[in-house]
Amino acid sequence: MRAFLERTSEEARRVLAESLFDAWWQKRGLKKFDWVTRFVIEYGDDRLVPTIATTYRKRANNDAARAALLRCLAGIGTTYALYHLYRVSRQGGQEMSTQLQSMAGLARQALFDAAASRGLSYADLVDELVPDLGYTDQGLVMDLDVRTYHARMNAKGTLEVVREDGKKFKSLPKQRSDEDPERYAEAKAQLKGFRAALKDLRTDLSARLREALLGGRIWKLERWQQMFEENPLMSHLHEGMIWNAHADGESTKSVSFRLHQDGICVDAHGAEVDLSEFATIDLWHPLDAHDAEIEAWREHLRLAKCVQLVDQIQGPVATLAAEEQEQTELTRHRGYTWNRGSFQSLLKKKGFEVGPTCDGGRIYEHTFALPSADLIVVFHHSIITAWFDDTQMAIDRVTFVNNGDPIRLDEAPPRLMAWVLDGVETIAREGQGYDEAWASLR
What pTM did the predictor assign? Predict the structure, then answer.
């Protein structure tokens, strides 16, 4: 069989892989036909990835089939395939029936394996998982032969369609008599597909940026320029984000800046910033800034009408009390109560996932993973049933776990701690108040 396949063209093998995948899925991904996945992995490419991803999202209805589809994406291993794995890794709550590991966990492990095989850290691999969506330094080009349109992003993060004569539209204008109907339909579908993919990408990038911000992620200058400044799509999407540049060695020189649509970097007062004298870049956070700088950036973003993928200006700046620093549990709001259903909804909005389900459908914790810092924030609470009824529950404690062991509170990244403290305070304030009867949960 292999000898026969080697005499066929690469395109023929790809088409055969697609056909076999479709036939396999007609059998609902039955395990006895799992040999098809090996063929898909060896001969499939990016053109098959959307079909696999869509099948996972909309058609797979059992754990074995979902796991097989994830193996296909991991085996194809292209940037586009791994991007879809990353999207699965950000979803939680779906547990395998044969082993206590979620599909998100399987996808995450596949990404760690892919990073190791490339000699990259998990965070560096995730940086690279950005499909360009066909967007270049000319924007999204829609060639109708008789005229050309370019869809470009502005500082507000919205798309503008620009005709070659400079006239702007909110979308592709009505077809003109001299334009080929087939080409016009293709351009319209191209723009529609780009808008949909861009919406998903923004959601993914927001999650990545929040993780990088909370974990204090640092990039070497050259790496940051490659990933953000020199990538047309990424530079436009990150126009509203504020960064810090730091000098190397013992120098304490640093400057905050943002990417400008003209292809330069500017500070809070609009002056151009030369990054050549700096060595590392991280995301700016108000916890590390003085009041005047925070206010200057607030006004700058208002005047520039920039939209941030993650709100930095309003970032929390809460810190631990002296007596809390050496503790391994944050208990300042133990005993504050909530309605179970509302509590689950609030934690979900903040990015927490439901923890393990114990006997009787009982849930005792929610978690927030920060893979780049190898940390998991665990929010412990009283019993919540898996069906989240409306009875009362209470906050217990928060711990920060590294490799299965809780760390001291002062060892957690300060920005992450500020975010957690602010979140717990919000949860306590908006709930049903303190109840002494719940204060001794343990």
Answer: 0.83
